């Protein structure tokens, strides 16, 4: 199967509606891909906290409608990155959207781990509570977002829920690029999954985003990686590799659960 990560420049100078039209056009041009991925909060800008309330939208809002139509036009599964979702009670969430080839919304995931350390996203948004996997025609897709990469428990939970491929939209800071490259490879390797991590580039909210969107296989090998420029990263993946690698090196089988902690004297 062929996967593509669209790595756009996300900057405050471009209005959200214009960026929505621009990226929808790129998605429509990906006919022949099996899965296309966009980055985190690419409409509002993940670091533009002052725009969250202004650019918030419901699950069936303008981004969902536009991306549904683009997925249907291209005939591809589309992970439309994440949006600032406003729930019916007014709570904001960082929510990822996954559409199938017909444009149907097949799954959404509210980011569990909110970044900010008592500022920014951590104070402005509610936290998700659910581990989300979605069966696709090529395998089971697990959903995570950006800062979630630092929490292995979520990724092990996704594998326990059947994930064979995990998608991570992000707006990772350029200053911590080495962490991004280490964690994306580590999560793919430890969970023996394909990991598709799509990061924005450009600067907004005073933060340079790192780019370097990447496709990593279940052996921890980088199959494709971008630089800091706006571009599309494409790779051919064989989903059969998941079962083959898990059989050849059955580390998931050897987990020991429920260990008790003791305190030495």
Automatic annotation (TrEMBL):
<protein>
    <submittedName>
        <fullName>Carbon-nitrogen family hydrolase</fullName>
    </submittedName>
</protein>
<dbReference type="InterPro" id="IPR036526">
    <property type="entry name" value="C-N_Hydrolase_sf"/>
</dbReference>
<dbReference type="InterPro" id="IPR003010">
    <property type="entry name" value="C-N_Hydrolase"/>
</dbReference>
<keyword id="KW-0378">Hydrolase</keyword>
<dbReference type="GO" id="GO:0016787">
    <property type="term" value="F:hydrolase activity"/>
</dbReference>
<dbReference type="InterPro" id="IPR001110">
    <property type="entry name" value="UPF0012_CS"/>
</dbReference>
<feature type="domain" description="CN hydrolase">
    <location>
        <begin position="1"/>
        <end position="239"/>
    </location>
</feature>
<comment type="similarity">
    <text>Belongs to the carbon-nitrogen hydrolase superfamily. NIT1/NIT2 family.</text>
</comment>
<dbReference type="Pfam" id="PF00795">
    <property type="entry name" value="CN_hydrolase"/>
</dbReference>
């Amino acid at each position: 199967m062929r996967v593509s990560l669209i790595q756009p420049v996300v900057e405050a100078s471009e209005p959200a509606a214009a960026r929505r039209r621009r990226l929808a056009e790129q998605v429509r041009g990906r006919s022949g891909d099996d899965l296309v991925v966009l980055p985190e909060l690419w409409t509002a800008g993940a670091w533009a906290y002052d725009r969250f309330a202004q650019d918030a939208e419901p699950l069936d809002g303008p981004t969902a409608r536009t991306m549904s139509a683009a997925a249907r036009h291209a005939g591809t599964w589309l992970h439309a990155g994440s949006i600032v979702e406003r729930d019916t009670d007014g709570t904001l969430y960082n929510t990822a959207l996954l559409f199938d080839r017909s444009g149907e919304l097949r799954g959404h995931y509210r980011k569990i781990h909110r970044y900010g350390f008592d500022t920014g996203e951590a104070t402005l948004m509610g936290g998700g509570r659910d581990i989300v996997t979605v069966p696709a025609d090529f395998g089971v897709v697990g959903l995570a977002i950006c800062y979630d990469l630092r929490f292995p428990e979520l990724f092990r939970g996704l594998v326990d829920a059947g994930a064979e491929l995990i998608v991570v939209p992000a707006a990772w800071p350029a200053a911590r690029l080495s962490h991004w490259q280490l964690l994306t490879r580590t999560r793919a390797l430890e969970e023996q999954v394909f990991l598709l991590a799509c990061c924005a580039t450009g600067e907004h909210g005073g933060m340079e985003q790192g780019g370097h969107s990447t496709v990593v296989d279940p052996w921890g090998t980088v199959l494709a990686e971008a630089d800091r420029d706006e571009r599309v990263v494409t790779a051919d993946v064989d989903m059969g590799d998941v079962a083959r690698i898990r059989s050849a090196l059955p580390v998931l089988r050897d987990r020991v659960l429920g260990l008790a902690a003791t305190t030495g004297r």
